[in-house]
Every structure is written in structure tokens, then in C-alpha cells.
Amino acid sequence: MSEPVFDVIVVGGGLVGASLALALSRQGRAVALVEPRPPETDGLEAGWDTRIYAVSPQNRDFLAGLGAWPDARRIGRVASMDVRGDRDGRLSFSAAEIGQVELAAIAENRWMLAALWRAIRASGITVVEGRAQRFDTDPRAARLTMDGGAVLSASLLAGADGANSWLRREAGIAASVRPYGQSGVVANFACALPHGDCARQWFLGDGVLAWLPLPGNYFSMVWSTSDSERLLALDAATLAETVARAGGGALGALTAITPAAAFPLRLIRPDSVIGQRLALLGDAAHTVHPLAGQGVNLGFQDAARLAELIGRQGDPGEWALLRRYERSRKEAVLTMQMTCDGLFRLFHQTAPGLAHLRNTGLSLVNHLGPLKRQLARFAVGF
Ligand SMILES: Cc1cc2nc3c(=O)[nH]c(=O)nc-3n(C[C@H](O)[C@H](O)[C@H](O)COP(=O)(O)OP(=O)(O)OC[C@H]3O[C@@H](n4cnc5c(N)ncnc54)[C@H](O)[C@@H]3O)c2cc1C
Question: What is the pLDDT, as a whole number, of residue 380?
């Protein structure tokens, strides 16, 4: 194989791939970004995106450092959290308790994508609009053949092509996929009462309901439920009533401001996240239950870590570097996957006495200062 043309080819221009491409380009690396559907970067003002993320302070700083943090007018902030069990269990904590200004920023998918892609368009990154068809590697380089026949080569292929990663499959990396039997139903609402920058979450026994504060009197809902079809079939007024009731009327009457959409929830754990001249990141490398709102946060940390390691090294696809990347992300990813999975199981078990135990546990943590602060730090990714 001849000399690779690029240092890194990033496959997938979603939030994670786009952030990696930009971080590498800022280091002066030659980067190609392959994406079949680049996002809109203009005309975003009208309406709200149903896909909203709770972005940790660490990742907000990462994106701001890349010059790719969205307009402040569209960003909500989480100053506190109020978590309710399926009986009388309750846990609440605030950013102030852990010496922070906010626990998380709430940002819309399309505004974050637009901020990243505007910066990408203004950088030296080669954007390749299309789908990859084939790839092969040797000890020195990786090659990607596009659907139109063009061939790209690089020292490293970074696969950020989502949960159903084509690259992961093509590389022959097996992944265990466990469906949760639930979907995440998302929609945005206007609320009659002020949300006070508080993120609210209810473990309902048969699902988890979260309300994330948007700017003004709006919030974004993620309802992880096995009953998604029923919710999607409701008209706007009935959906708003149903959601208000499920949240105990905490924010008064609600008005739906977007239609609801649903995403299937799965736990995906590949056997490995690296291969010869190949690294996976973002949902291609892991998915988690959205009850902690940490999926994309893990992905941004993958991108930040991989970029950091590459920044210290001449050859971005060297095996020792890839091993370091895999090792350094393993614990954070596993901890988050197991914590979310454990909470999901704990609140979906119907064994006698367990409901009492989990609700008591939640309230107990609420009274244990150090443990509560530890949990609050974990919730924001410190
Ligand atoms: C209901 C729900 C709510 C969630 N809420 C949160 C939350 O509050 N906070 C949070 O942190 N996370 C949340 N998540 C998780 C979050 O959505 C994902 O972790 C995140 O979108 C993953 O980003 P990504 O860039 O890795 O993948 P994706 O967003 O899936 O992007 C993959 C990209 O690759 C491209 N692509 C695909 N195939 C190819 C190919 N062959 N060649 C080239 N490009 C290709 C696609 O077009 C796409 O642009 C939630 C998930 C769900 C389901």
C-alpha cells in the first residue's frame, strides 16, 4: 500500500465523529470526514429539536474549546436534580452541593451538530459526502473505498458511525446486543409552572420518565417505556395530560410543542473497540440506557481522549496508542454501562420487598452527605 494521504479518516459525522475530526484538525492533522447526510447549519431558529442532550460541564468545555458550542440562547441549564422512586423514595441534589455552577447543560442535537459542522466547514477538514463500501488495512495504513469508487487512505480509521456501525461489522468485531424491551419516547413541552432549572426524574416501576429544563418555560421529556406505541398514538393534548399526570403535576398543565418520537433502547458492548489501524468511538463503541443521559457524554470523552493521545504521537494509528486508548476508556464506559443497567434492573424487578428496599435506599442516600455528593459528581461525569 502506498503512503496514506490522511492522518485520520473519521467515518460518521454525528456529534462524536464531528468533534473528533475537529479536535484533530485543530492539532494540524490531515483529516477526512465521511458522512452521507451532513446536517443543516442554517435556519435552525424555528421550533425545537426533540433530540436533546444533557451535556456534562467537562464536555461543554471540550466543545467550547473547539469553538463549537451552540448559541447560549438555546441552552438550558440543570442547577439541581430531583429523583423520585416508584413509592416514596426521593433523592435530590444541587450543583452548589458539589461546588459547581451547574450539573449539566441542556442542548439540542441539531444546534450542537450545526455548531460543530460550521467549524468543520471553516477548517481544513476534507468532507466526503457519501457512504463507505469497503475497507481494508495493513500494518501501515487503512483504505476506504467509497460508494462512488473513490479510495481514501489514512494512518487511522476512526469509526463513529453509530450504534449499528458498518465499520464495526466490516472489521469483524463481534458485539453483544441486549435490547431493553423499551423505547425512549422524546417530546418537548411548555409548562404552566417554572421549572427552576431543575431536572426531574421518576422511576415509575414500568419505565423511567425524565424532564430536562430548556430555556424559558419549556422542558424536554425522555420517557423510557415498553408502552411507546400507545404514547406515540396519542393526540397532542392527551399526550400532554398523560405526561403531566405521570410527573404528578409537578409543573402544572403542559402543552406539547413538538410531536413525540421513539428510539429503541439497547445495551451494546463490542468485544473490542480497536483493530489494525482502526478505533471505534461513540455509539459504535458502546450504548447505554438513557436513564443517566450519558450516552453522548461518553462519546465526547472517547473523542477527547483519542485526540489527546494522537496529539502526543507521530503515527496516529500505531498499535500501542490504540491499546492505550482502549484501556483508558474501558473503565469509564463499563462503569456507566453497569450503573445504568443496574438501576434499570433494580427498578424493573417485581420481587416482593424490593420496591420498599430500593425506595428506602434512595431516601437513605439523600441523607448521607458524602455518598450523595459522590453520586452528584458521578451524574455530571466528574
Ligand atoms: C431516547 C434517547 C435519549 C438520549 N438522551 C441522551 C442524553 O440526554 N444525553 C446523552 O448524552 N445521550 C443521550 N442519548 C444517546 C445519544 O443519542 C447517542 O449516544 C449519540 O447520538 C451518539 O452519537 P454518535 O455520533 O456516536 O452516533 P450517531 O449520532 O448515531 O451518528 C452516527 C453518524 O454516522 C453516520 N453513518 C452511519 N453509517 C455510515 C457509513 N457507513 N459511512 C459514513 N457515515 C455513516 C450517520 O449518518 C450519522 O451521522 C440518548 C439516546 C436515546 C435513544
Answer: 57
